[in-house]
Write a structure and sequence with these properties.
The protein has 260 residues and is mainly alpha-helical. It is 75% helix and 0% strand. It has helices spanning 15-34, 37-57, 63-97, 99-105, 112-138, 146-158, 161-173, 179-193, 205-210, 215-226, 234-259. Helix 1 (15-34) crosses helix 5, helix 3 packs antiparallel against helix 5 (112-138) and helix 10 packs antiparallel against helix 11 (234-259).
């Protein structure tokens, strides 16, 4: 993603100054969103509330199995949000207000802007995964060995990257005021169609057939495998997500070069 934002005239910088510029931009982006309850609280509380409702309260009598399944599904649902909203909505707003133009004019590495947003999204995704894992362990009594806990973290945190790329693309397409609505129109239907709210086995055949079209489906399959409920094909799911990421970034880069 570092090639997407191009600076107008960045003077030569030492490796140390370049690293510090990336570090400071990432720190600023993380603090900015951690101090924004309108972004942070819904991102953390929505998947947690759904998990408590359906994975702990409603899931009887096979609560342990349902809680493990929904840990993967709602974990995927939760980590989609930081990328889609942190990239998509904020980029659209910053394009409209001229902040993106200002960032390009600053003497900073061209990739620092996107790297900062990516670090923010990965940090919030880790917070979502931690909260859900805590609920699963202490409230739903899901027993996962350390290897599966590590796999779950890896899948959910790194799995936020395709949705950062999707949010980046959306942020180059929509205007700032319409961005929240458009992102929700992508986020919520995709979560439903990918089987994150209800198992695909409970959905009509046509919806089961098209589920692999959505990147959320492939991340969910990896998350299910991480908690011991997957059906294989891990390599295929990784390749599909990598392909989606590359396509979204290429489209965003082209639009930013043409339209700013």
């Amino acid at each position: 993603m570092s090639a997407v934002i191009e600076s107008t005239a960045v003077p030569a910088m030492s490796a140390g100054r370049v690293f510090n510029a990336y570090l400071e931009e990432a720190r600023a982006e993380c603090l900015r969103y951690l101090r924004n309850p309108g972004f942070l609280l819904p991102t953390l509380l929505f998947p947690a509330a759904f998990y408590v409702m359906f994975g702990i309260v409603v899931a009887q009598p096979d609560r342990a199995e349902a809680a493990r399944y929904l840990l993967a599904s709602y974990g995927t649902f939760g980590v989609m949000s930081p990328g889609l909203f942190g990239f998509g909505v904020s980029l659209a707003l910053e394009r409209d207000t001229g902040l993106l133009t200002l960032k390009r004019a600053l003497p900073m590495p061209p990739g620092a802007y996107l790297a900062g947003k990516m670090c923010m999204a990965l940090l919030v995704a880790a917070m979502v995964a931690t909260l859900l894992l805590g609920l699963a362990t202490f409230a739903a009594h899901v027993d996962l060995p350390p290897s599966r806990i590590a796999a779950f973290y890896l899948v959910e945190v790194v799995g936020a990257l395709p949705f950062c790329a999707l949010g980046l693309m959306l942020g180059t397409v929509v205007k700032g005021q319409g961005a929240p609505g458009v992102v929700n129109l992508v986020y919520l239907p995709m979560a439903f169609l990918a089987g994150l709210w209800f198992p695909l086995s409970m959905m009509p055949g046509v919806l089961r057939d098209i589920a692999p079209l959505w990147p959320a489906y492939h991340l969910d399959q990896l998350a299910l495998a991480a908690v011991g409920l997957g059906e294989g094909g891990i390599g295929i799911h990784v390749l599909v997500l990598a392909g989606y990421t590359a396509v979204f970034v290429m489209i965003a880069a082209r639009r930013l070069r043409r339209h700013g």
